[in-house]
Amino acid sequence: MSEVRIRRRYIDCAWGQLHLAEAGSGPAVLLFHQTPRSWDEYREVLTILGRRFRAIAVDTPGMGSSDPLPQPPTIEGWAAAMAHLLEIEGLDRVDVVGHHTGGYIAFELAAQAPDRVRRLVLSSTDLLNVGARAIRTGRRGIDEVEERDDGSHLAELWQRRAKYYPQNNRLLKRFLRDALCTEDPEDGHRVVARYEMEKRLDRVRRPVLCVGHARDRFAFGGQDRLAGALADAQVRVIHEGEIPLEHTAAEFAQIVTEFLSAD
What we know:
Elements: E1 6-12, E2 17-23, E3 28-32, H1 43-49, E4 54-58, H2 75-89, E5 94-99, H3 101-112, E6 117-123, H4 130-138, H5 152-162, H6 169-179, H7 187-193, E7 208-213, H8 222-229, E8 233-238, H9 249-261
Parallel strand pairs: 3-4, 3-5, 5-6, 6-7, 7-8
Antiparallel strand pairs: 1-2, 2-4
Helix pairs in contact: 1-9, 2-3, 4-7
């Protein structure tokens, strides 16, 4: 089998540019990353999905190499930006995949444009309601560090994330590189904590796959709560799965391929 290559480019939008990476050809699949990452979270997944699909990983506005939106960020605003991307690219109907923050953007895109989304994969995505928002708002964010002139906040950010990562400095380097591209690496988590997801549940009527990562201490278990609140959802668990999607990229890509290829 020939190697699937990743191509990177920018899309001109009304407010600036969106950066994306894509691989392969065929039915389109959009992939949205967690906070404060970039398309790089899907680097390994892209080359696997690209064997069967046109896999497109998009940098969320204000993260990676995408320009921020002019207004304060919201899940609704980010999803509207992705809907704008569909218009520009002429994509009438797509499958959508999201991990952590990207899962909420994917969910909201399906709520805003239900006729444009065929199937939905929500990875490490919990059900957000009043109680869940209160918990998120009341705790210190994992990436919340105070910037200091001596740069010690970068070491603190590394150490705070290292507790939730496998013993793999390569993955932490990729995380830190992405975090430095944002104005505030915690801001995306604050955006999620304000999202009133429960008000959108009845708008998502497409088949949904909720993926749980058993070693993700922030989100594991949420896949069952969310699936139980949706009309047409199933659950898969990756037992070695962690917060960084790259850790089990091959298994995740296989699960996504099976779900998107099902009759």
